Amino acid sequence: MSINVSRLAMNVLHDTAYDMLSSQAQRHLSELLRRGEAYARKGLGVELQQTVQRMPNLTATTVTLGTPTIAATGPAQSPEAISDLRDALMQLAPWRKGPFSLFGVQVDAEWRSDWKWARLRPFLPELHHKRILDIGCGNGYYLFRIAHEAPAIAIGVDPFLRYYYQYLALQRYLQTPGILFIPCALDDVLDLGPTFDVVFCMGMLNHHRSPLDCLRQLAMLLDSRGTAVVEALTISGAGDHALSPYPRYAKMHNCYFLPTVPCLIHWLRRAGFDDVQVVGQTATTCEEQRRTEWMTFESLADFLDPRDPALTVEGYPAPIRTTVVCRAKHPAPATSPPT
Q1: What is the side-by-side strand order in the sheet with 222-234?
Q2: pTM of the predicted model over 0.90
Q3: Which domain holds residue 56?
Q4: CA dist., res. 39 & res. 49, Å (int)
Q5: Running DSSP on this structure, what letter comes out for residue 319?
Q6: Is 107 inside a domain boundary?
Q7: Per-chain mean pLDDT for the chain
């Protein structure tokens, strides 16, 4: 069975949610789907698509999205079918976000993403019948949790094809309507304009070379007084400054800035947000992020100083994740001109 972006988009593009988008957004979404489908069939995508296509044809009778483990269950299957399913899912590893359970196969991902959702959910705005964008959505764990809230439309974007095909593997059995994953980056969706009621940006800001421009782009995607949910790595301190680690932070070469909380708030206000509320600060622990059978590479324990877990291996302060909920002012400030 051939699986691609356009096929999974049909649940969205042929219901009333599509009519909630402006004509410009509709045209650009169609173009994003076309480009995403072409991109997903190149390079590593060829191998990953074959893996998803070889997955056994199983039909779920119960799909669970509102519990910590997103699950699909059905009639008893043969040991061979379950073994084939497990092997295919393992070929899509590493699994960073989860947990998932498909017909009894437990995907114990690196991150206990359900813990973050449990901390965040009490502070979120109404998601029912809203237009939602999740930037840097990983394999779509939070898209599925959002789907439980019955949004009008929820779109996730992430350029990493392994995450995209993990999402397709999950959707093969979950068959969750109203959500859509497009393999692309933030810059690619800007032409959608001020379309969304809620934009999630969790874990991406520190990896952007220009965090202020990134936040401005979020504001530009929100409809009038829309809500942004931003999670970022921060450092302690009362001053409005940011750490710029070099050459790595927690072994990450692409972590450019870690602000203090006051600095992050100032960035958000400069970018066109107000009603800025810090709703959570959590030190990342090795219980929440760890190596598992489904993610066998280095994880948090390898990134911290073994003699002092309050420091990274480079000697920087260990990760603190700060979550902020804020609202867009309009018109949003334009992004900075090229220099």
Answers
A1: 179-182, 153-157, 131-135, 196-202, 222-234, 320-328, 273-283
A2: yes
A3: 5-328
A4: 12
A5: P
A6: yes
A7: 93
